[in-house]
Amino acid sequence: MDVELDQFTTNYHVEKTEKVSRFGHGKAVLRKIHKNRLVNKQGKIRTRLVNVAERRQLYLADHFTTLIEWRWRYIFLVFSLSFLVSWVVFGSIWWGVYIYREKYFNVICIEKINGWTSAFLFSLETQTTIGYGGRQITPDCPEGVILLLIQCIIGLLINSSMLGLIFAKLQRPYLRRSTVLFSKNAVIAPRDNKMCLMFRVGDVRRTQLLETHIRVRLVQKHLSAEGEEITFFQRNLPVSHDFADTDDFIYLFVPVTVCHIIDEDSPFFSYTPDELLRHDFEIIVILEGIVEPTGMTMQARTSYLPDEINWGQVFVPVVTHKGSNNGHINVDFSKFHDTVPVDVPRCTAREFENSLRGNVEGISNEALCLVNSEQKEDEERKEEKNGETNKAVVMDPSSSETSEKDSVSLVPNGNVPSAIPVTKL
User: What are the phi and psi torsion angles at 42 (to 5°)?
Assistant: First the structure.
């Protein structure tokens, strides 16, 4: 059983866990199969870069972006070390200048300095402009004046750089996507006599995103005409909020249902529910918008696998006027992920469109879908039978030329009487 299962889980991560029986008679092996996906449900891209030449040099070349992407613990460490190192370095320089001037020229450069600790405190007071009033440089030491100017300039550079780094990290709209919700599952159901792939999007904040648009990509394996196998081939899936809309802009005043019409241009046009589960693909949803308070662009992502698409279901309405005060519209997010089944034939979108035409002629949708499915199964069965057995053409010489077409039959080799001439295929 393990061999048969592994043949169908080449693109899956199989995790084996052992559980000891409570009576100690044996171990039960549990197998958890996790599908490899490019984007998880939280929007994180699940890729790992390996064997990158000179990665450190590339990251250091763009050091500001590298610092912004660091975690907060490292940011605080860099923030603290930048000031501490500058204080210690300039404190040591001040102490060296003081010793040099006092030893060789008998000149006091800094008043009230009696050791390295007092020189460090003078460096701290100078760079932070505290100025307690006790320690100060004298005009008899020109190198002290130059060193004071250098420390002030470097201190201002450190202050502006660290504050800019922290402000840029705080201003990032990285966590703004946590308030944008996507439905856990997508659904396939008819809408306005068209089979549609649908999912729901909502925003729980009162401040709306500006210029919000959504894009959907289908990622799957693709074999080119030249025989090249593309592992992650991306294909655009056109979506819209309403059928009348031709652009990808949506307005999240209330949760909206985004639709992809499964027509002859859709890759799902010839998929049955069972075929949809057997295929290996991933639908990646990308929502972008401008955060109103900061004016920065944010991006929220999610993805859907074949087993996360429910056939023949629709989303439960979440917008209601009941129980609202002062004319407000209530949005019940407790039902945001809920779906209910609807009466949908388990056939392809192509057969569903044909069933609609047949319904006009007096044939029900279910009957025509069933007929189309049976015809499709018969054709597949005939193709398999023709591929497994050899055929022969049997011709009857006593028949006339007008009945030659009726006297030709296909019989298996070895079952033909010897008196009848046989033309083998």
Answer: -85, 0
